[in-house]
């Protein structure tokens, strides 16, 4: 049941693991002049909380989705020039900071994936539960749609994408069916793809793991938006932008993203000295300290209140030295 009073719109997005994100970043954001980056502004839930919790801090927030920027601009207007919102892909962070004349930042937050608004708006084509044009671009001003990927990619590439980004065991079966169907008529809407996946999968596979189209949709979304390639560049860039003592927190929603974040943090926290040195010279010492043991999960209470928090994995790290490598 919704707690929303009758006549009020449903809240569109409840920020995930909000308290814990704020706590992780807090020690770095108390000083006047601190800059915190929200790399995934979305509807501005985390950003609004950052601005109200850390009154001395200035926010720079990015999103590649112009609709999200429009809505958040209104939401964050009361904070005036403490908030700077920028239309950018998050691996452009160093260039954005450069343009703003900001040399280093004290905090960075990533809340990965799609927003509730993107999922809920049928016209964006992210949801497999409703029929919609197969678009899935987070930035609808550029790039190619999921329908174009499905209709034009060679079968081998589609199989690779479904396996790598969707961890789909039946990639080959699904792609064979897609290729047969697209020759008859190109794909344009999600319902036909969902139906095709249902008919292509063995009955036993339908009984487990929720909607059988989920993995294919995830894979197409990651491909359309280049999500993993962008993240692979963005997390090291964000770590590089942190001042010593600065902190980064990343919320991931699927294992491929979380693995990537884990690898970047683990590499930063590792001692890279050749074995056998009696004293580890400074350039080989870690530049990150991990702030979370493994990935932290949302509580059961939070999941009960906000089912979209369920897959969340949170990792945090602190920059502890300049890069001497
Ligand atoms: C889960 S939502 C963020 C929700 C936000 N924390 C809030 O509380 O409202 C993720 C947002 O990140 C944006 N996004 C995803 N990948 C991006 C990228 N590579 N560059 C910039 N923005 C991205 C999406 O457009 C979406 O609006």
Can you tell me about this structure?
Keywords: Cytoplasm, Methyltransferase, rRNA processing, S-adenosyl-L-methionine, Transferase. GO terms for molecular function: rRNA (cytosine-N4-)-methyltransferase activity. InterPro entries: RsmH (IPR002903), SAM-dep_MeTrfase_MraW_recog (IPR023397), SAM-dependent_MTases_sf (IPR029063). Its EC number is 2.1.1.199. It is found in: Cytoplasm. The chain has 325 residues and is an alpha/beta fold. The protein folds into 2 domains: 18-117 and 227-319, Rossmann fold, CATH 3.40.50.150; 125-225, DNA polymerase, domain 1. Helix content is 42%, strand content 13%. It contains 14 helices and 7 strands. The protein has helices spanning 18-25, 45-53, 66-76, 93-100, 116-120, 146-152, 155-166, 171-184, 190-200, 203-206, 214-224, 227-241, 255-268, 300-305; strands at residues 35-38, 58-63, 83-87, 105-111, 242-252, 288-290, 313-319. A 7-stranded mixed beta sheet has the order 3-2-1-4-5-7-6, sandwiched between helices. Strand 2 (58-63), helix 3 and strand 3 form a beta-alpha-beta unit. The longest helix has 15 residues, at 227-241. It is globular and about 60 Å long. Bound molecules: S-adenosylmethionine (SAM). S-adenosylmethionine is lined by residues 13, 15, 40, 42-46, 62-65, 68, 89-90, 111, 113-115, 138, 230. S-adenosylmethionine binds at residues 13, 15, 40, 42-46, 62-65, 68, 89-90, 111, 113-115, 138, 230.
